[in-house]
């Protein structure tokens, strides 16, 4: 994949997330890695107005290599870099605040395995990581307890994190996590969740 295509994917997914109400205008962030370089979405930029030339390029240590004037990296860049450090096979990281999955995170409730085939096939239980103030290392200080080995995490009182080999795949995981959370919530209101037998 070329750098231009990867950057186009980031911007495309950012806009899709906004259109699908997975983030508000200034929420969430997406990054992608190519060898020893990472491109991350800028902080406080409207998802509707984001373009490829606004993305910030940095190395895996967080040193900025290219940053357009007037922009700065997402405040959650450290979280993305920690995932890349712990998971050498991951090439894309996505963070959003989709409603149902974030509701699980606010309640410190993992999305359980054993009830939805799709959850069992792709994720297993989706755990909740301990709370950390957004934009600080507290958010990801315990990631080593969960990664590698998980494709999705719930961030306590905060949102959702997915990781994959490509940006579109990380987005598909985020969609799947939100759908699972919504389905399980509704099923729980209808009656007692029935395990897969």
Unreliable stretches (pLDDT < 50, length at least 5) are none
The CATH homologous superfamily = Class II aldolase/adducin N-terminal domain
Instruction: Average the pLDDT over all residues and give the rounded result.
Output: 97
| Structure summary, number of beta strands | 8
Sheet having the most strands? 8 strands, mixed
Q: Can you give the helix content as a percent range?
A: 25-40%
Stated plainly, the CATH topology is called: L-fuculose-1-phosphate Aldolase
The helix/strand order is HEEEEHEHHEEEH
The CATH class, by name, is Alpha Beta
* Count of all domains: 1
Question: What Rg, in angstroms, do the CA atoms define?
Answer: 16 Å
CATH architecture: 3-Layer(aba) Sandwich
How would you describe this structure in keywords?
alpha+beta, Aldolase_class_II_sugar_metab, Aldolase_II/adducin_N_sf, 5 helices, L-fuculose-1-phosphate Aldolase, about 200 residues
List the helices and strands and how they pair.
Blueprint lengths: L2 H17 L9 E6 L2 E4 L15 E4 L4 E3 L10 H10 L5 E5 L2 H8 L10 H6 L5 E2 L22 E4 L3 E6 L2 H24 L7
């Amino acid at each position: 994949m070329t750098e231009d295509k990867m950057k186009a994917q980031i911007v495309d997914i950012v806009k899709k997330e906004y259109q699908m109400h997975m983030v508000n205008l200034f929420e969430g962030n997406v990054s992608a890695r190519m060898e020893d370089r990472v491109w991350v979405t800028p902080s406080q930029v409207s998802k509707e107005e984001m373009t490829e030339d606004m993305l910030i390029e940095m190395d895996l240590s967080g040193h900025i290599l290219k940053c357009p004037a007037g922009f700065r990296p997402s405040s959650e860049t450290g979280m993305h870099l920690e995932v890349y450090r712990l998971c050498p096979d991951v090439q894309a990281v996505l963070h959003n605040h989709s409603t149902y999955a974030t509701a699980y995170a606010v309640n410190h409730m993992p999305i359980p395995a054993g009830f939805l085939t799709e959850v069992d096939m792709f994720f297993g239980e989706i755990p909740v990581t301990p709370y950390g103030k957004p934009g600080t290392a507290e958010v990801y200080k315990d990631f080593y307890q969960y990664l590698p080995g998980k494709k999705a995490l719930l961030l306590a009182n905060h949102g959702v994190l997915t990781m994959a080999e490509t940006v579109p795949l990380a987005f598909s995981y985020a969609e799947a996590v939100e759908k699972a959370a919504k389905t399980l919530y509704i099923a729980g209101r209808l009656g007692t969740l029935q395990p897969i037998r």
